């Protein structure tokens, strides 16, 4: 059976690392039972408490490359060398079969790829940090990454911020509660066809 990207609706949240998209997505999932989270696949190993099938599908580099060869992804990318992330077609089919709307928490390139493929059945939201300085502060306050990794994320963020106008909506995350409420309104209107 051929994959049909228009079989259901999707909400795509993208942002540079540290902009707060994951927090907003978690808020929506807690408030709206009609949504279901699309679990991404990746080639890296689990970190800390991460579990296969809950946080990511951990495929390993060879397993990921095999899925590419099998055309199992709706979209995928090599974010850094041998560091692959992607969305399995089976994940969307699973959620749509449950009668739910798919929610993505993906990087900017992945978000734009999904929007291009899914088209009018997708609402692509870019979560905008209040400033580049605020973004840097959030990344540093996590205390989870080396200086080299932070520098890499900030360089990538600069490029990603320039892509914000390519999304359907730019959601400013200057005050988290307000941003969550605004996201909720956007999503409800999109699902109901307003």
What is the CATH class designation?
Alpha Beta
Output the number of helix runs.
Answer: 7
Which structural category fits the helices and strands? alpha/beta
Mean pLDDT: 92
Strand order in the sheet with the most strands: 2-7-1-8-9
> What does the overall shape look like?
globular
Topology, pairings included?
Layout: E1 10-14, H1 21-31, E2 35-37, E3 41-42, E4 57-58, H2 60-69, E5 73-80, E6 83-88, H3 89-97, E7 101-106, H4 108-118, E8 122-128, H5 132-142, H6 147-161, E9 169-172, H7 176-192
Parallel strand pairs: 1-7, 1-8, 2-7, 3-4, 8-9
Antiparallel strand pairs: 3-6, 5-6
What does this 3D model show about the protein?
- There is one protein chain.
- The chain has a single domain (10-192), classed as Rossmann fold.
- 34% of the residues are buried.
- It has seven helices and nine strands; from the N terminus they run E-H-E-E-E-H-E-E-H-E-H-E-H-H-E-H.
- The model has no long low-confidence stretch (mean pLDDT 92).
- The protein is globular and about 50 Å long.
- It has helices at residues 21-31, 60-69, 89-97, 108-118, 132-142, 147-161, 176-192; strands spanning 10-14, 35-37, 41-42, 57-58, 73-80, 83-88, 101-106, 122-128, 169-172.
- The strands form two sheets. It has a five-stranded parallel sheet with strand order 2-7-1-8-9, sandwiched between helices.
- Strand 5 (73-80) and strand 6 (83-88) form a beta hairpin.
- With 194 residues, the protein is α/β, with parallel strands linked by helices.
